[in-house]
Amino acid sequence: MTDREEYEVAVKALDSKKAKDIKVLKVDDLTILANYFVIASATSTTQVKALADEVEYQLGERGVKPKSIEGYQSKTWICLDYIDVIVHVFLESERDFYQLEHLWADGTPVDISDLVID
Hints:
The chain has one domain: Beta Polymerase, domain 2 (2-Layer Sandwich). It has 4 helices and 6 strands; from the N terminus they run H-E-E-H-E-E-E-H-H-E. Helix content is 36%, strand content 26%. Helix 1 (3-16) crosses helix 2.
């Protein structure tokens, strides 16, 4: 699977579980950590876990397993590392606090309007 296909599956999985404010940033020119960051918000810790679980399930169905997963204990920010794509699922207040989009503001926003239902 290409990294683009991975982030597309992740975005669709997040959208299917009603994630809020889904964003994709292309960061390959800025870091060796990943090519893309997928960032989404949830309204509760239960939804944070459900969103992360759905991403893991949908990519797993396609044979893609995460290299690592962090944050399942707190359920306020779960990070799924797929090497080329890193998926960040935040509780809304945590996303506001960490401002990941601001930290990576030099990243290129990816148009995902064709992947999400308005």
